[in-house]
Design goal:
Four copies of one chain form a homotetramer. By secondary structure, chain A is α/β, with parallel strands linked by helices. Chain A is 38% helix and 18% strand. Chain A is built from six helices and seven strands; from the N terminus they run βαβαββααβαββα. In chain A, strands 1, 2, 3, 4, 5, 6 and 7 form a seven-stranded mixed beta sheet that branches.
């Protein structure tokens, strides 16, 4: 059984909702998959770090703020230099997701960063595995309407509450993404 | 008077429509701004190269195919190693735009590449200067609904004809972007 | 047994040398690993495409020209839209390498593109898994002196022949990288 | 007279040395160019923010930690959402530099982020304007040996003190870069 941890920061609650959907997807494969929330100061407890070290797959999540991950997520990433020195996370499965207010809004920059972080840790990266919905008949709540391959994206209007956004289609995208990452982790663990 | 050239490749006509909108915007500032179309084999004529060499601003455009510029655009970029060796384009203004079928669809990867190309040429990069439309009340035909800062993005459904797409809002975004680049070029020329 | 194919373009022979080193590394794990060379017009034969379709891991290689892959490599990538439509390469292992004349020289831009391509194909990406040699005592021929995580980099001076460059350290880096990718592919196949 | 501010974070002092070299270059054009240091908690004083708001050019600098800017720099970037909302920095000149221990070490990822940040602010980006030293005869202390176009890079071995690194060539690169950015700012201001 491959263990999955979803490690994320959320500023206002939208990314938390997305993280919960990713978790729900992962739990279809690993019933014990769990959330690891980075706090408002960018810190994790020792117990939380231990969950990450023990996991077979780490799914990174952050809002896109000013063009990449939040500073709190980055503080976590900087603190991961400790396991990096010993390459403790080598060959774990990695993946990433992000939410922001704008359709594009440089969300790909955030996913590129999460990928870059995972490569420094010698992890193995998995994307959405989902084709985009991009025909004339496409609707906003289709799976992968926002249209990302490298990781899962969600879009929540700038004046929406966490209850209002992300929309159902983006949450379903997050679930399918979480399930895929957990499946790849399970297959890789053998 | 700053001279503007819009150098682009279009596979099916959607990016050409976007290029024409960028041109229309640029022409509000430089009445003689012109299109320079890369052909289906990725080539430009000597006359077309001369237009680029004489311009004060080059606006690069390409569809996003398989995650970055089309191979025809890249063939043009590779051929630009000739003016690169002598840094002939140094201090020209640069900017970029792209169209693809998907809302995100890695369009930012294309803009990042166009930026990277311009930096090798020691050009000076200008983005859209447009805030995104990302409130709950946002509509598909708002200016910068697709939501890009580094350059102009348009989205045309995968089964749309060039007549059908890009949509009016994306074309208006392209016009405002072309006008901005030409204004910056004029200001920089002094 | 996981099948590995190294699909690459080389303009002057330096990237070919790097590809051969990647292959040598891969063959320690998959004795039948093979090179698939993109020709000077950016084409592959039907037999070559068949090798790619049958492989469990595709290692992409290209020189960095004007900031990303060569146009010939991009023509191959654009032609891969055919297997993309049916997601024929889904869950294959992917990895990438590049050579250029400059220490940095935007080689990371090339690796980012190869990653982006692989994500559109729903492949699973593996990096070098090699720590950089970056102490005061570091020497040019150390493994991963050029210092890349996302894929293997080599640097060959602009006036070096393919016989002279890449240097032995970069070729050893390429071998270790090829071996790692093949090992991950073997583990993933189970 | 165009006003230049070099806003940076330094963890151990290497990036500070690079920032001082950038400043020295800028001061050849703007004698009053100044440093604005982000503190160890990622904060600026009101007086420091006022310097940024009044400047014509902002040169961003950060070490590359775990693949992009330090969390302290990111905290500053997140706090810049306040001037972003009113686009207070629109049409300022922007540029960026970074130091890390490894030759590549994902430094381009950091520069790409600084570029992305500047584009959200509708700034105008200037790179190094320096050709790389990449011949067989190249030496470590040549200008732009590290070889970057989008912004200035320096490399300081992981076990070097700030006194030992960055090396003289990287500092000269930083000076020429600072001078170029100030010149472009002066030309743009007219």
């Amino acid at each position: 059984m491959a263990k999955v941890a979803v490690v994320f920061h959320s500023g206002y609650g939208h990314t938390k909702k997305q993280a919960e959907a990713v978790l729900a997807g992962a739990q279809k494969v690993d019933a014990n998959a769990q959330l690891v929330a980075i706090d408002a100061e960018g810190n994790l407890s020792d117990e939380q770090w231990a969950i990450l070290h023990a996991a077979d797959a780490l799914i990174f999540g952050s809002p896109t703020y000013m063009g990449t991950v939040s500073w709190q997520f980055k503080k976590f990433a900087d603190a991961s230099s400790k396991p990096w020195f010993t390459q403790m996370w080598k060959d774990k499965i990695a993946a990433g997701f992000t939410n922001s207010a704008t359709m594009n809004g440089d969300k790909l920059s955030t996913l590129h960063y999460l990928f870059t972080l995972s490569m420094q840790h010698s992890m193995i990266w998995v994307g959405t595995g989902l084709m985009p919905s991009n025909k004339k008949s496409a609707e906003r709540n289709d799976v992968n309407f926002v249209g990302s391959f490298a990781g899962a994206m969600a879009q929540s209007p700038s004046d929406s509450s966490p209850e209002e956004g992300p929309l159902p289609g983006d949450l379903e995208t997050a679930r399918l993404f979480g399930e895929r990452v957990a499946q790849v982790a399970a297959k890789f663990k053998g």
